[in-house]
Every structure is written in C-alpha cells, then in structure tokens.
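input
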Amino acid sequence: MASSTDPYFVVKEEVENSIANAERLYARWQRMFTSRSADDAEFKHTTEQLKTNIKSIEWDLEDLAETVSIAMREPHKFNLSQSELSNRNDFIETSKQKLKALKDGTSDARIKAKQEKDQRSDLMGRSKYSRYEKLEREIQAENQGFIDDQQQSQQMVMREQDTQLQEVGQTIGVLKNMGIMIGDELDEQNDMLEEMDEEMTSTSDRLRGTLKKLDRTLAITRDGKQSCCICLLLLTLIVLIIVYVSK
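output
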C-alpha cells in the first residue's frame, strides 16, 4: 500500500482541484457563450483564462503519468501494488477525458463559428431577443451562475471539512492506542511492584524469625555460663571443706 506521504497524492489533489475550478469556469463560459457576443471583453478574457488553466492541468497530468510509468516498471521498489497502479492509471485517463471535453468545448473552431454567426446577426439585424429581453436574459444567466458557484464552493468546503474530520479521527485513534499501551505498561509495573513488595515482606518475616532464634541462642548461652560458675563455686567450696576436715 502506498504511503500517506507519497507525493502522488499531493499532485492528484491539486489536479482534482484544478479540474473542478476549470469546470466551474467552463460552466460560466458556456452561459456567456450563449448570452454574449464573441467580441465581448469579458467573454474573451474568460476564454483565455480557461485555456490557460487547461494547459496547466495538461502539464500536471503529463508529470503524473510519467511518475506512474516509472513506478509500473519497478513496482516493488516503490512498494506499490498492481491495484494501486491501476487506480492511478484510471485517474489519469479520467482526468484526460475531462480535459478533452473542456478543450473541445472551447475549441478555436467553435469560437470562430460563433464569431461568424454573431457578425451575420449584426449585419442582418435579426436579433433573437429584444434589447431588454437580452439584458434580462444576461442578468438571469449571471444570477444563476452566481448561485451555481456558491453551491459548488459550499460542496468544496464540505469535502474539506470531511477530510479534516477524518484526519482528526485518525489522530484520536493513535492517541487511544498510545493510552492503551501506557495503561498496559503501568499495569505491568504495578505487578512488578506488588511482587517486590511480597518478596520484601517475606524477607522481613524470615529476618525477624532469624533474629528471634539468635536471641534464644544467646539467652541459652548466657544461662550456661551462669551454671558453670555456680558449679565451680560449689566444687571450690567442697574442696575447701575436705581440706579443712582433713586437718
């Protein structure tokens, strides 16, 4: 499985965001395409901006495709499974298809056809809508575009919040595991302390028993010395009596 620090995922997220922005800009461009003339300044600016974004995304996809191609030649070196490589290829192909749709929609041929149509309409004076109707249509289109942009922005914010919540959940899981490990280690240390306490108690009991035996031994020894002294004194007295009587 690929690491969460794999630069592929950073570039992938950038490409996804860039494509999403380009699609929103293309939706706005489409509304302008039907409501404004090809010579409109804002329409021209939006067209150039959209083409620039598409070209930038193409470069990012080329770099991404090259890194995937290198990884496919040595998948074990990069610790990537065939399933992961297949998913990356699928993402690149899907992104290319989205870009192709954007490029086809903003092709020079389509813009040129619009210019020619607008010129014919101006020359023939056959505008489909009156001046006020056209203005109202443009206002409605802009309002709808604003609403669409707001909805898409809210969706992006919600996706970002979901990602942040997932990261917080992962962090909490790590902290929980650390807490469990610390608790287990404290339990082991408590068990060791209890064993040491039991050993110290047992040793103390044996020491007290030994001291009692030693006291009894010393007491017996003291009593024996007193008995010897008494015997010697009695023997001496008997000898003196015998000596005295023999005289």
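quick obs: Residues 7-186 form a domain with the Methane Monooxygenase Hydroxylase; Chain G, domain 1 fold (CATH 1.20.58.90).
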